[in-house]
Amino acid sequence: MKARIKVTLKNGVLDPQGKAIEGALGSLGFSGVESVRQGKYIEVELAETDRKKAEAAIDEMCKKLLANTVIENYAIELDEK
Amino acid sequence: MKARIKVTLKNGVLDPQGKAIEGALGSLGFSGVESVRQGKYIEVELAETDRKKAEAAIDEMCKKLLANTVIENYAIELDEK
């Protein structure tokens, strides 16, 4: 089973990487960009075939390693292969 | 209009960051992890309200700045606000 995880900064947390992209887009001549936020995208391939168990495992991975839950949110999508 | 962009490494391109996560998950006792790939996730808020134009603008941003199309793929999702 494949899990797709999006880790994003919580609202209100400063995002210098996003700001840098915003500035660079402006320099390249793109107008109308109101804000940019950058996060991480992680794909995990699991041997587990049970959806519930896979979801629980991924959730724990996010809490323990993949996301810093003090400043980041995460969203999980599961795909049967 | 809000665009959500996923930038992922093409198949066959080495992903040391993904490998590091895979190793760390193993050390934490998570078994059954077959592979991990890490990419970027970018949210762009646009003033543009026309869907077609917004899509074209985002596509150009990806080609010019956000993704390195030699080694990376990107996927765009557009959201009406």
What brief labels describe this structure?
3 strands, alpha+beta, homodimer, Mth169, Chain: A, elongated, about 35% helix, 2 helices, about 80 residues, three-stranded antiparallel beta sheet
How does the overall form of chain A come out from the CA principal axes? Answer: elongated
Structural class of chain A: alpha+beta
CATH class of chain A: Alpha Beta
The CATH superfamily of chain A is known as Phosphoribosylformylglycinamidine synthase subunit PurS
Give the N-to-C terminal Cα separation of chain A: 6 Å
Radius of gyration of chain A: 16 Å
Number of domains of chain A: 1
The SSE string of chain A, one letter per element, is EHEHE
Mean pLDDT score of chain A, rounded? 95
Catalogue the unreliable spans of chain A: none
Oligomer: homodimer
Strand content of chain A: 35-45%
**Pair with the biggest interface:** A-B, 33 and 33 residues
Helix fraction of chain A, binned, reads 25-40%
CATH architectural grouping of chain A: 2-Layer Sandwich
Strand segment tally of chain A: 3
Largest beta-sheet details of chain A: 3 strands, antiparallel
With strands numbered from the N-terminus, the spatial order across the biggest sheet of chain A is 2-1-3
Task: Predict the CATH topology of chain A.
Answer: Mth169, Chain: A
Counting DSSP H or I runs of 4 or more residues, the number of helices of chain A is: 2
Protein name (chains A, B): Phosphoribosylformylglycinamidine synthase subunit PurS
Keywords (chains A, B): ATP-binding, Cytoplasm, Ligase, Nucleotide-binding, Purine biosynthesis
Family (chains A, B): Belongs to the PurS family.
Catalytic activity (chains A, B): N(2)-formyl-N(1)-(5-phospho-beta-D-ribosyl)glycinamide + L-glutamine + ATP + H2O = 2-formamido-N(1)-(5-O-phospho-beta-D-ribosyl)acetamidine + L-glutamate + ADP + phosphate + H(+)
